[in-house]
Design a protein that fits this description.
This protein is mainly alpha-helical. It is built from 11 helices and 7 strands. The strands form 3 sheets. Strands 3-5-4 form a 3-stranded mixed sheet. Strands 1-2 form a two-stranded antiparallel sheet. The chain has a two-stranded antiparallel sheet with strand order 6-7. β4 and β5 form a beta hairpin. α4 runs antiparallel to α6. The longest helix is centred in the last third of the chain and has 30 residues. The protein is flat, with a radius of gyration of 32 Å. The two termini are 53 Å apart.
Length: 320
């Protein structure tokens, strides 16, 4: 009822009327306000600000095509914005992830119950650190507990959640027009590059070749990056490969990653030896299975006028 009364008060201020309460509760009729009243100031504030907020929210574009023609169906789908997500189907992959989360929940609850009964420390991490300081990463199996009521509750929870997911019927959250647009965009996957703008947050759609050319131009113009061509050994000498393939690039990335890991671990070992930190600390903080960071380029759509771009426009000067 509080929300309803606030809405009535807002309508009263907007229309310049005051409620005339009848005998019944929460029922009222409306009559005009007198000429001498303090409410015109409030009324002008409402009438000035309320109409200007709605057009600004509706005018925000959520898709920016650059030298690309989009159908009405494709544009309608992309207008949903990058934060929109399709409803997930209840398949075996989802059920497996649900079972894993339930098992993880049961694992934590068993440890909490075990620590309440036996251990002197309050958390599992502190309990493990007392026994294995820097010898290995802290992990332990679920402890044996004799709480029959808790185990029965966990079993009931598992059965309830699994049965709930199996009976669930998730509706498709796309209209027929949007579903058609999704199908059209999937068919143009090899042609179009869809990303998110920098600071704007809307979709940016352009051709894949244009995206590659812009990325190459950015790398060449900054002077920060250096190209390392794939190499191979010939007679004990490293020579660049004349016609590199994706496999040769993958080998080059793998070899550079291994080299970086080796240098980092050597530097850390030297620091440990100099500071006399011990072999346990040395082995615990060594790096393994490193992945090199990937570079991506975002278009700053807020710095240029999209309507001024034509088919012959130089994107390297406009899209920065």
């Amino acid at each position: 009822m509080t929300k309803r009364r606030l809405q009535q008060k807002f309508l009263w201020l907007k229309q310049g009327c005051k409620p005339k309460t009848s005998s019944r509760r929460h029922q009222s009729t409306w009559e005009p306000l007198p000429a001498e009243t303090d409410s015109p100031r409030v009324e002008t504030e409402v009438t000035e600000h309320s109409p200007t907020n709605t057009p600004q929210q509706d005018s925000e574009e959520k898709v920016t095509p650059i030298q690309v023609d989009l159908s009405s169906e494709e544009r309608q789908l992309l207008e949903l914005g990058p934060k929109f997500a399709l409803t997930r189907r209840v398949d075996e992959t989802l059920m497996s992830s649900v079972r894993v989360e339930i098992a993880a929940c049961a694992y934590r609850l068993r440890w909490v119950e075990f620590l309440k009964q036996t251990a002197s420390c309050s958390t599992l991490y502190q309990h493990l650190r007392q026994d294995c300081q820097f010898r290995e990463r802290p992990f332990a199996k679920a402890p044996p507990i004799n709480n029959v009521e808790m185990e029965d509750s966990l079993k009931q929870l598992n059965n309830f959640v699994i049965e709930l997911f199996q009976r669930a019927k998730v509706p498709f959250n796309l209209t027929p027009t949007e579903a058609k647009g999704l199908k059209l965009l999937k068919n143009r996957r090899s042609e179009l590059h869809i990303s998110v703008s920098d600071k704007g947050g809307e979709f940016v759609v352009m051709k894949r070749d244009d995206q590659k050319n812009l990325t190459t131009h950015h790398i060449d113009s900054t002077g920060v990056y250096q190209f390392l061509p794939p190499t191979r050994k010939q007679n004990g000498v490293l020579k660049p490969i004349s016609t590199p393939t994706p496999t040769s690039y993958h080998r080059q990335i793998k070899s550079m990653t291994t080299l970086l890991e080796k240098n980092c671990n050597k530097l850390w070992s030297d620091i440990c030896d100099k500071r006399q930190l011990g072999s346990d600390v040395k082995e615990y903080f060594k790096v393994h299975t490193t992945q090199l960071p990937a570079m991506y380029v975002l278009i700053k759509t807020h710095k240029f006028n999209i309507s001024a771009i034509t088919e012959n426009s130089d994107l390297s000067r406009i899209c920065k």
